[in-house]
């Protein structure tokens, strides 16, 4: 990716020369330490970070917020994912460590104290639910999700699947439920008007692709999946429900028996998590699908 062509890169370089390269080295070194590949080229995480920063810069401009500070929040939003060469190493939200990294880096590069504070506060409020939100965090939240959908988002899903050793069947069986669930409610999951307008097309494009993909899997590989939409009760009750799209095998692969499904939700560190348990009524084979529910499903 030609970083110098990015609007946010040019703008941040004018604000603080060398800052983007410094953040890039920090993220890439942490990912290399985690992977153990010292000679690896630019990793998936930095590529994703650039996409989010670029989208966030444009959204901030449209929303009449500070695009430079929003892009900085985006550049640091995943900076703690491989902190210390480990993946999600502690029970603390990774945004807390990202905020510490941002403060240390930005103070050393001479960014104004007030601007550093805006970036740090936005990072700490990322993905927090509730009415009281931070505008920069809202924009980065939307940019992050937008990059994961549409045709480029689909491509990145398969890149990530390959990096994690998934084949076509496991990607469909274990992860497409999450992708379809989020794609279906993508506009409602956005926090800004500018992002909602973009999300409508990305949602439609994503759903169209994955449904066609499932059809080709069935035709080419004999994999018989069913796409099923269900309402599941959310943690805490009070009539709160979430609409979930599940991609399930039509029958047990071991014996051809019928799957029985159970759903459970629980409040996690940063999200409400769905656990879908599958049990074959004939042979007892078990599988499970779990993922964080969208905020506004």
What radius of gyration results from the CA coordinates?
20 Å
> What is the CATH homology-level superfamily of the largest domain?
Hypothetical protein af1432
Q: State the order of secondary-structure elements, H for helix, E for strand.
A: HHHHHHHHHHHEEEEE
End-to-end Cα distance, whole Å, is: 34 Å
- The CATH architecture term of the largest domain is Orthogonal Bundle
Strand order of the largest sheet: 3-4-5
The poorly predicted ranges are none
**Domain module count:** 2
Shape: elongated
Describe the secondary structure blueprint for this structure.
Blueprint: H1 7-15, H2 19-35, H3 44-62, H4 67-76, H5 94-108, H6 113-125, H7 135-146, H8 150-163, H9 168-184, H10 186-189, H11 193-221, E1 225-233, E2 241-249, E3 259-267, E4 272-280, E5 286-292
Antiparallel strand pairs: 1-2, 3-4, 4-5
Can you walk through the features of this model?
The protein is an alpha+beta fold. The chain folds into two domains: 3-147, Hypothetical protein af1432 (Orthogonal Bundle); 165-292, no CATH class. The protein is built from eleven helices and five strands, in the order αααααααααααβββββ. The protein has helices at residues 7-15, 19-35, 44-62, 67-76, 94-108, 113-125, 135-146, 150-163, 168-184, 186-189, 193-221; strands spanning 225-233, 241-249, 259-267, 272-280, 286-292. The strands form two sheets. It has a three-stranded antiparallel beta sheet with strand order 3-4-5. The protein has a two-stranded antiparallel sheet with strand order 1-2. α8 (150-163) crosses α11 (193-221). The longest helix is centred in the C-terminal third of the chain and has 29 residues, at 193-221. The protein starts with 6 loop residues before the first helix and ends in a 5-residue tail after the last strand.
């Amino acid at each position: 990716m030609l970083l110098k062509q990015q609007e946010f890169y040019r703008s941040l370089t004018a604000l603080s020369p060398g800052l983007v390269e410094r953040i890039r080295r920090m993220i890439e070194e942490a990912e290399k330490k985690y992977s153990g590949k010292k000679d690896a080229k630019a990793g998936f995480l930095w590529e994703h970070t650039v996409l989010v920063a670029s989208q966030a810069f444009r959204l901030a401009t449209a929303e009449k917020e500070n695009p430079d500070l929003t892009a900085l929040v985006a550049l640091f939003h995943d900076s703690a994912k491989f902190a210390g060469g480990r993946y999600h190493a502690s029970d603390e939200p990774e945004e807390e460590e990202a905020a510490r990294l941002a403060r240390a880096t930005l103070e050393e590069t001479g960014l104004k104290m007030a601007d550093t504070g805006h970036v740090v506060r936005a990072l700490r409020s990322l993905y927090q639910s509730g009415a009281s939100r931070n505008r920069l965090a809202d924009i980065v939240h939307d940019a992050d999700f937008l990059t994961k959908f549409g045709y480029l988002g689909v491509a990145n899903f398969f890149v990530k699947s390959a990096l994690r050793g998934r084949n076509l069947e496991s990607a469909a069986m274990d992860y497409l439920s999450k992708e379809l669930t989020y794609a279906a409610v993508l506009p409602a999951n956005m926090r800004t008007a500018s992002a909602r307008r973009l999300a409508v097309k990305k949602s439609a494009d994503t759903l169209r692709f994955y449904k066609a993909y499932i059809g080709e899997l069935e035709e080419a590989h004999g994999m018989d999946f069913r796409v099923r939409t269900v309402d599941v009760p959310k943690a805490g009750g009070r009539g709160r429900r979430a609409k979930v799209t599940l991609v399930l095998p039509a029958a047990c692969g071991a014996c051809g028996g019928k799957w029985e499904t159970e759903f459970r939700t629980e409040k996690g560190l940063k999200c409400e998590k769905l656990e879908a348990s599958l049990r074959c009524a004939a042979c007892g084979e078990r599988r499970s699908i779990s993922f964080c529910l969208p905020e506004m499903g």
